[in-house]
Design a protein that fits this description.
The complex is a heterodimer of chains A (336) and B (456).
Chain A lengths: L3 H9 L5 E13 L13 E6 L4 E4 L9 H13 L6 E3 L18 H27 L7 H11 L3 E6 L8 E2 L4 E2 L5 E13 L4 E12 L6 H20 L29 E7 L21 H13 L10 H19 L1
Parallel strand pairs in A: 3-4, 9-10
Antiparallel strand pairs in A: 1-8, 2-3, 2-5, 6-7, 8-9
Helix pairs in contact in A: 2-3, 3-4, 5-6
Chain B lengths: L1 E6 L2 E6 L6 H8 L18 E4 L2 E4 L5 H4 L3 E3 L12 H8 L9 H14 L5 H7 L11 H12 L28 E2 L4 H10 L4 E3 L5 H6 L8 E3 L9 E4 L2 E5 L4 H5 L2 H6 L1 H8 L4 H4 L4 H6 L8 H4 L5 E6 L2 E6 H4 E3 L2 E2 L6 E8 L6 E7 L10 E10 L2 E10 L6 E2 L1 H7 L6 H14 L6 H25 L1
Parallel strand pairs in B: 1-5, 6-8, 7-8
Antiparallel strand pairs in B: 1-2, 3-4, 3-5, 9-10, 10-15, 11-12, 11-15, 13-14, 16-17, 17-18, 18-19
């Protein structure tokens, strides 16, 4: 996909001021809490029917990662209704059950499972009522739900994230199954390094990510590119320091520099699916996954171009300058 | 004070303090919460709106200057139930993740498309460079804009009417005016003379952040952004004359600047992102007399002079004399910078502006350096260079200039020049890095000059 091996050799031999470099990194990232964390979480969701639409109640907060889209998709699929018939409720702790925190690449994978379970419980209630009432089969879920509400005050059900895999984790010895599912990513960063001005920039970024069953391909791709760009920013422009009195020096957006559109590379992304039996519909957590590879791949690309070891980030202009100067001294020192 | 605003085709009247920001007015007075506050200092673009046809950061526009303008916000495009084509494209292409940047991002895209209905990928990147997105990696945003263009979005644009009766704010009932917005230069100078100590505002891109962090305080304000004599770029008598309230955006769009002053074009283009460029003025950039400003690094080598005016007349001086010291311009209490005058560069002269920041757009200079050279009979007839960001004020590199004047370019001389420049600059922070980079940029310019000499 990136022609990594050929380019790596080719770039190694470059001379001159503006050089290219290429680097690769691979990572795996477990979805959800570690060890028995998920077993003890009590992840619960509620689904109810308001007379028109199904409403999802979870503590999984929409923060741009897409839970307000993905959770309704999961519910719609489970209930056999269209996504427009499902409403994601903005979490309010007086109204929603505890679905656990919105962290750890766990929302789609495990909060989704609790939503799915709640939907199954709704269906169970509806179908048993249906057969009691001797209603005809193959009536649409939403229609049955409307009929049900004529006889009942409300229609709602809780659901939980149950595991059936007998996974074992020893908290004392830190042994056993740390995670039910790992997402994988391999990423190649092709960078340009200007040895005159000590600027390194990522130009082409390739990534192949295996993220289990993909619920929403558009959002999955967005998570990969967005996460990669963030980790690329960490690698060369996002510089947080602490002054003598312990205060952050980068407290403004004019000193903490996140990548702009001009800094973003060309993206080449491929998504692969190896469903995880314990994740909702085979999904795996992928929120944090892309953050793992940007920095090691980018620094490897800088090393390839500039022949200096980068063991810490961010590799700002000053840092690259220092590394090159140190390298020069060592080289001349060795020649003596 | 009472101001009029045309927002999304509706006339609004608001009674607000003169330095209340347009963003606060939109959100708090008019209840239009679509525009967001991210940084409050023009660094993120979440508050972007279109004001009088140009993208601005509404967090950097004071009420006094917004008064009388025509504004388009995200609420003016479409509603959740009835989105316009661009909004729809953002949704279908997945260009919205957390959504915080989205209203500003959409307005930035809209401003681009109103000016350029068939933008290239590069045009899009430049247009969005002041709008930070932390979620998407930008790719889907480009895709959304391209989709809207393909769907024929630009043909839906209609002319927006400004319904305001006047730009001038009316003081609140029973109060004496503390904010003046004259519409002629003579009025401005008279007000300035009558109200000693009055604070002058032009682009306000520095003043609003300073107001927020307590570094700027005012009793009275003089807004000079409505004075026509202080605006525009003209070519006359062998000089290019730029009004002090001309914005970086106007400099970038000027055919005169493109033709005669490509290095000034570059400096203006590299200074901030579009929404800041549309507000920040050339006069403001030199009035601060600070080494952090970008434009003096090239205005000095171009031989610019400054005209300052008061009711008693005009004084004209070289820019290097105007910048007496850090934040100490040669400007009396009753004077305004009126014009920046740049001699038309000689035929065959070469000019260049280099800036290095930490990222590609919207970045403060870590180093900015400008060059101007004339070559005659294979020799350097004139050589001027200035550097910013490395000293309290932008300065000429005198030693470098005198070394090169009258010399024939050779690789030996280039090496000597690089060493001279390295020794001459004296940056306080990251000294070796900046010194080395200066010497490399000197080398780069001189090597280009050799090639240029071979061509002419």
């Amino acid at each position: 996909m990136s022609d990594y091996r050929r380019k790596r050799e080719l770039y190694e031999k470059q001379q001159g001021r503006v050089r290219k470099g290429i680097g690769v990194a691979i990572a795996l990232h477990g979805g959800g809490f570690t060890g028995a964390g998920e077993d003890n979480m009590g992840t619960t969701a509620k689904v109810s029917f308001d007379g028109e639409k199904f409403r999802i109640y979870t503590s999984s907060t929409e923060i741009g990662q897409g839970s307000s889209t993905v959770l309704p998709m999961i519910a719609a699929e489970s209930l056999g209704v269209s996504p427009e018939d499902v409403i994601y409720t903005v979490p309010d702790t007086s109204k929603v059950p505890n679905t656990g925190p919105t962290v750890a690449s766990r929302t789609t994978m495990y909060a989704g499972k609790a939503v799915r379970d709640a939907c199954e419980n709704i269906k169970k209630e509806l179908f048993s009522w249906c057969s009691n009432m001797k209603l005809p089969e193959n009536v649409k879920t939403a229609e049955i739900a409307k009929l049900y509400l004529r006889d009942h005050k409300s229609l709602d059900a809780f659901g939980v994230n149950n595991f059936t895999d007998n996974s074992i984790w020893d908290e004392e010895k830190f042994e056993g199954n740390a995670y039910r599912g790992y997402a994988w990513i391999a990423s190649v960063v092709e960078a340009e390094v200007d040895l005159d001005t000590y600027e390194a920039s990522a130009r082409n970024v390739y990534a192949a990510a295996e993220v289990g069953r993909i619920i929403n391909p558009v959002q999955a791709r967005g998570q990969i590119t967005g996460g990669l760009l963030q980790s690329i920013g960490w690698t060369h422009t996002e510089d947080i320091r602490i002054d003598e009195s312990g205060r952050y020096t980068s407290s403004h957006m004019n000193s903490y520099l996140v990548p702009t559109s001009m800094d973003a590379p060309e993206w080449n992304i491929e998504l692969l699916e190896d469903p995880c039996p314990e994740g909702c519909f085979g999904s795996k957590g992928m929120g944090e996954l892309p953050m793992d590879v940007g920095a090691p791949a980018f620094t490897a690309a800088i090393e390839n171009a500039a022949h200096v070891p980068c063991s810490s980030i961010p590799v700002t202009g000053e840092k690259l300058f220092d590394l090159l100067e140190k390298n020069k001294k060592e080289m001349t020192g060795g020649a003596k | 004070m009472k101001i009029e605003l045309t927002v999304n085709g509706v006339l609004h009247i608001a009674d607000v303090p003169p330095m209340k920001t347009l963003l606060e007015i939109l959100r708090d007075e008019l209840g239009l919460k679509g525009s967001k506050e991210g940084c409050g200092e023009g660094e993120c673009g979440a508050c972007s709106v279109i004001m009088n046809g140009r993208l601005v950061n509404s967090c950097l526009v004071p009420a006094a200057q917004a008064s009388g303008s025509e504004i388009l916000t995200i609420e003016g495009l479409g509603t959740s139930d009835d989105m316009d084509m661009l909004q729809k494209a953002f949704v279908t292409e997945g260009a919205v993740q957390c959504g915080f940047c989205t209203p500003g991002m959409i307005l930035a895209a809209r401003a681009l498309l109103e000016e350029n209905p068939s933008p290239s990928e590069e045009d899009i990147k430049i247009a969005l460079s002041g709008n930070i997105c932390r979620c998407t990696g930008y790719e889907k945003i480009y895709a959304a804009i391209n989709k809207a263009v393909a769907d024929g979005y630009c043909s839906t644009f209609t002319v927006r009417r400004n319904l305001c009766s006047s730009g001038n704010a009316v003081p609140a009932h029973g109060k004496e005016s503390i904010c003046f917005a004259p519409e002629t230069l003579s009025d401005a100078l008279r007000i300035l003379d009558d109200n000693r100590g009055i604070s002058v505002i032009a682009g306000a891109t520095d003043i609003i952040p300073d107001l927020r962090n307590g570094r700027f305080k005012y009793e009275k304000l003089l807004d000079i952004s409505r004075v026509p004599e202080l605006k525009g770029i003209t070519l006359s008598d062998g000089a290019i004359v730029i009004g002090s309230c001309t914005t970086n955006g106007e400099i970038i769009r000027s055919s005169i600047v493109k033709k005669y002053l490509p290095a000034l074009w570059e400096a203006s283009f590299r200074s901030g992102a579009p929404a800041v460029q549309n507000r920040a003025t050339i006069g403001g950039n030199i009035a601060t007399a600070s080494g952090a400003a970008d434009l003096p690094s090239i205005l000095l080598p171009l031989g610019a002079s400054v005209a300052v005016e008061s009711i008693s007349g005009t004084r004209e001086m070289r820019l290097e004399d105007f910048i007496r010291g850090y934040r100490d311009p040669d400007l009396m209490e009753n004077e305004l910078i009126s014009l920046i005058i740049i001699p038309v560069p000689k035929k065959g002269s070469v000019q260049k502006f280099y800036k290095r920041g930490s990222r590609r757009a919207l970045t403060l200079s870590r180093i900015s350096i400008g060059f101007y050279a004339e070559i005659k009979n294979g020799e350097i007839d004139e050589f001027r260079a200035a550097a910013g960001s490395m000293s309290p004020v932008p300065v000429h590199l005198d030693k470098l200039e005198s070394l090169l004047r009258g010399k024939k370019l050779s690789s030996g001389l280039i090496q000597e020049a690089a060493e001279t420049a390295k020794a001459e600059v004296n940056p306080r922070r990251s000294a070796m890095w900046r010194k080395t980079m200066t010497s490399k940029l000197v080398t780069k310019f001189l090597e280009e000059l050799i090639q240029h000499r071979e061509i002419i």
